[in-house]
Amino acid sequence: MTDTEAAGSAGTQLPPTEREFTVRQRTQTQLVLRRFLRHRAAMVSLVVFVLILLWAFIGPHLWHYSYQKYTPDNSQPPSGKHPFGTNASGYDAYAQVMRGTQTSLKIAILIALGSTFVGAIWGAVAGFYRGFVDSLMMRIADLVLTLPLFAIALVISSRSGGSWYWIAAVIAGLTWAYVARVVRATVLSLREKEFVEAAKALGASDARIIFRHLLPNALGPIIVNATVLVATGILTETALSFVGFGVQPPDTSLGLLVSQAQTAVDTRPWLFYIPGAFIIAIALTINFIGDGLRDAFDPRQQRVRQ
Amino acid sequence: MLAYTVRRILVSIPVLIASTFIVFLVVVNAGDPVANFATSRQPPPSKAAVAAFSRHIHADEPAVQRYWNWITGVLHGDWGPSVQPNLDIGHDLFTRFRVTVTLVAAAMIIALILAVVFGVFSAIRQYTAADYTITFFGFLFLAMPVFWFAVLLKQAGIWFNEQTGSQFLGTIGEKSPYLEVDTAWNEFSDRIGHLVLPTITLALVSFASWTRYTRASMLEVLNSDYVRLARAKGLRRRTVMVRHALRTALIPLTTVTALDIAIILGGAVITETIFQWHGMGEMLVESAATVDVYRTMAWLLLSAVVVIGFNLIADLLYAVLDPRIRYD
Amino acid sequence: MTVIQKGEDSGAVLEVEDLSVEFPTEDGLVRAVRGVGYRLDRGDSLGIVGESGSGKSVTALAVMGLLPATARVRGSVRFEGTELLGLPDARLSDLRGSGIAMIFQDPMTSLNPVYSVGYQIAETLRRHQPGLKSRAARDRAVDLLGTVGIPSPERRVDNYPHELSGGMRQRVVIAIAMANDPDVIIADEPTTALDVTVQAQILDALETARAETGAALVLITHDLGVVAGHSDRVAVMYAGRIVETGSVEDIFYTPRMPYTLGLLGSLPRMDREEERLTPITGSPPSMLNLPPGCPFAPRCPLRRAACDTTEPALRKAGHDLHLSACHFADELVDTGAADVFDAVGADSEALARFADTTTPSPHSTNAEEDSE
Predict the structure, then answer these.
(1) Where are the domains of chain A?
(2) Of A259, A265, A284, which is closest to B139 when you measure between CB atoms?
(3) Residue of chain A minimizing CA distance to B288
(4) How many domains does chain B have?
(5) What's the confidence (pLDDT) of residue A303?
(6) In sequence order, which residues have a C-beta less than 8 Å from that of residue B237 and are 6 or more positions away?
(7) A55-61+91-298: which CATH topology?
(8) Predicted ipTM?
């Protein structure tokens, strides 16, 4: 702004300053982060989830019992020696739950990463090219969506022999289509935006537009979906393992631990409740984190609050 | 609308063929029933017996030919051979289907009614203690593994029966093996008693997600301009809530419900396993464990038809409820 | 306002006094409206002008009692002598639609998509005229549709909103507003969402509605041109307050507040030979933590020390009914926008800003929504 003496009046005229601009401009990332940090449930959940993650992956190296070694103590309730007790064969439940959490988390995270990777590219390509490519790709995705996830996973993974990456691959192979749909919808609206037009006008290649302009801008929904998929993943895997088609002994997962304990709810309740509580804790914190991220990326929903 | 329905059904046929074909290839390659047959029996069967078994279940034919024979056979009511001797897959399927339908229908109806009640209440009382409570339990139920909750309920049922000295809550099977007094009423109440716990189990997850959905949808509508205009016209709060907000907010729920049918069928598998129902869930688990290709396919075909049917019904219902959608 | 004495009620159908509205948010208290007052006589027409976020719509919703429950409303709103603030919702809803009617900005979303327009008009008729048979309500709806200029109304009455154009839908909303012969119609930016070509028709329909019902009109807009043609009096709002009010002539020919000057300067006019428009630079202040002093000061080319310390009250400027909230209103006699706002400097700055916003950056899609 420029100083003006046009009014020509006496007195001390001050140049108009930009008082409202003294508030520091924030980048989009900072804004998202700030909104996320304010979401109390999401923040608490994030802390809890990270703690569980560290515990499951670092804990086994520090704990003096192995999940696959007998101890002389059979059917012990939780104590200082065995914080989560032992089972009828003398396995230390603390070591087993730790191992089970690790396996379940590994599978769930792989599911989320795998299906997000495939689904995001699939959806972005379909949404970007539209027309025939879009129809074909989305019909395939729709086809996958009509398959009952749990039933198909059950049938296929019966062949897995319990290897964790195979189970993850099977489930991810059935969930990527959800991501593809979400990303396609976002990309369809983004591709009409000016910055895509500008990139096109500047002669950017299709791949560059997809990977540099469309996908980064669709990051919000992609991240939110990936988070939700971790919850879906852990619930599906544990259910599979429970029915006997997922992780197989001697390895273990939270679902398998609950399955093994289901006949002993009365006699050795700690074996049943503790792994169950871990599944709930993981799925619950993940859902809260996803909720916080959704609010952070999509402030329109918060406007309601005013 | 009739023309649209017919067209939709016609379009569904290639979808059904494509999806069953893919699934067939997957299932055929998911295990080796002949090897199972050859190794798992004592004394080991002769080579000739193994070859005969392989021929019996068409394991010696190429997959594409098997698929073709199977799908054309199904059209004539022939569901193919099972690895179990003397098992009529078609009969098995429909007997079990009836059992499962009761469970799924009861669970869906209950989940839907409760979801609408709690979702709407939560939306109207947004940011009150009631809303937070409902939201928290919604999150909790969404995070709750069905199998874990089912085992817990089963224990609770046994405890309840012990406390009351009754046998009302059935925890095993869809009905008692036999009844002392075999009247129609007794049979009915026996079935209801067996239905209670599995229904609660199966309804739980859908209830949670549909409640959250109803709440969000209701909130969106409550903040819409037309609800504000309806209030500005002088309509009373209650009238606006029911006639303008609820009526419009529930429309998208039809689609969500229909899309979730696949998830509910999956949940039914777990529920039936735990409560030992002789329904479709048990059938799937058994056939997956025994690598029974045609029995698995029968299950998947029927569930695919159910899923596609539900989507069609949802789309038609949508057109009835929302004048913006017209099919012709 | 123009004083038309009408027996004992002294002419005022709507009196708003010292109205303030606050919204508690996570970031703090948003003071959306800060002491707004106006008086509307029977048949009178008041234009309320201001940028988005200046509190125009919130004021209107406060009058209607339609603000969300979290809003804190203080002051006084009297309709025909009855205090509306604090009235139970049931009593208020008797008045809404029959005493005071409202027209909203976006006709595309104002009508419920699942009911026919006839049903939505009949609904308001039957709400306020309990004895009305549905047949008669329908006939009346057809009449109303004809009145607001919808061709072949007897056919249109059964249409759903999505079958009508935006202009037609806004006519339906006007028909709903006039259905029960209200004494006041509040039109909140009724033409903003519409094509320029349709705007004049809608304003005509609004005039027809006024003529038919004899209602007083509060016309909220950010378009001074609309106000000039359809209002007797004007109130200019800025940062939740009325900063200048007077007759249309006062505001257009002898403005006494730099903000009004700025608004006029950014309006293309056929009646003056000015070479270029003079935009107001900067943007309205956040209603959260409003600094002391005149809220317009940061954007005001005439700003002086006093402007940063005390907020000027709305005082007489010129004659009795022309009020202005500027410390230096008296110095603005016979001043035009071009004298105060620098056209050239502003232009280059605007250009720089434009260049800024068109630069592609990730996440730019949400950027403007983050002000809360």
Answers:
(1) 55-61+91-298
(2) A284
(3) A155
(4) 1
(5) 36
(6) B231, C89, C93
(7) MetI-like fold (1.10.3720)
(8) 0.85
